[in-house]
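Incident log, structure service

09:12 report received: a user says their structure output differs between two submissions of the same chain.
09:20 pulled the input from the user's history:
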Amino acid sequence: MLTLAAWLILSGCSGGGGGQTLVSGSDQVAEEDRYGGTLTVGIGVPIVSDLLDPHRSASPGNSRIQRSLFDSLVVELPNHEYGPWLARRWEISDDGLTYTFYLRDDVTFTDGTKLDAEAVKFNFDRIRELPNPGLALNYIGSLQETEVVDEYTVRFHFAEPFAPFLRYLATENLGIVSPAGVAERGEEFAVFPVGSGPFYISSYTLGNEYVLERNPNYAWGPVNADHQGPAYLDKLVVKIITEEATRVSALQSGDVQVIDTIPPQNLAQIEQAYQVQEVELLNYNASIHFNATKGVLQDKRLREALRLAVDWDQIVQTIYLGTYDRAYSVLSPSLFGYDDSLKELWVHDPAKAEELLEAAGWEKGSDGIRVKDGQRLSLQMIDFYANREKRMDVMTMVQNAWKSLGVELNISTTSVGDYQAKSQTGDFDLWIGSQYGPDPDGVLRPYLLPRTGFHDKYQDQRLQDLLDQGTVEMDLEKRAEIYRQVQRIVHDEVYAIPVYVLPYTVASDRRVHGIRFDSKGAPQFYDTWVNQVSR
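09:34 re-ran on a clean worker, output below:
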């Protein structure tokens, strides 16, 4: 039996509100003087479908609010280690099929109800039963049963080993919600949920603004927090500001004190007057994905030609002005299992691209677009995010490069509903997207494997077999090698073209301190405080 006992990180931790720990640097502020004030944050991505129920959502925008509302059983620490949060300690059986967690006995939800083993069981049973779960269902793998051992002990039983379980437990997607809140709020719980976190939602305007207030009873922060006890801030206001210039203007005018996703063209200017923090979001990198099982892109030669024809370095440099890195794999560099050898396989060879298309029978027509058997080489791209992270700027440059090759690209920005309908029928040739997550299992499966009710874009049994192996392999090096093989198949078959690695940037007023990030890059405001004296 492997026992993981509760432990403490001594460096960086401080006591409760009565302590006298001072902040290093020019602002010498006593612990008790950090409490109070309102922080307003402008985030650049929408709350997809307005979902804040952690078990039903799958978007990074949603997580930027959820992380302040929900606690996790464990917290992920550097070097793929884990520490206590709601669970004081835990045990994993030798066969990897059983996890036993010993919970804290002093935790309550913000509705006043108790967080105990029955509440944890309710959460995991709920995830398995939800008609439209988000990432949470993938994050529990082959979980068969959640057993209440006693009031504060809960045991998870799996049908087969599930290697990423602890990593997923540390995410907000498996955050613990209030059973009473689910029952009392009904359908509204999706947008107005109840957790045990350092903040709770006091009011909201769907899709625009969310006002969070401090949970005065909070005393169970994760082991790596900088302090214990209630959050420092009285209020945390989150505004959804998707338009870049408006978001920057809101920071400069003082309407907000923090913004995220700093536009590349504004970064140098922002750095002169504000604090800037940057982390790599653990991600399936923003990639152009091809429909390889329907339409002309079933021919691998076309997919390869489309990759060869574009100078991807030039596009990333032109659009992001040196603030984003090129992507060479679908996995971001800091994600477990990343294969850095793929960088050596990339070439820009427009002449070879021409040869491949001509060998496939596509000849240039009178208007420069290639034709085969009377059919134009015209590709249809679907999208609903518009110019998120300047993706449409990227695709405009790609569109021009492909046009020089004799390929027409039509870009259709549509509603979420229409996008999903086309995804289900396979009525598209390509799309661009990314998927945030802490483990390769969770970011690769949604894009590479068949999804019930959706068109299967790849139908590659090798991917299915390898990803299934990766799920159960408990040896870290063997598991990493499995994911390197997956990345190599995606590259060799040109199922997707990774474009850029997303840095998550946050700019804040110099009076703001203590913005932290969880293991996959979501901001945390539990330790955040505002110096209300200095100007």
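09:41 both user submissions now match this output. Likely a transient worker issue. Closing.
09:42 reviewer note: The radius of gyration is 24 Å. Confidence is low (pLDDT under 50) at residues 1-26.
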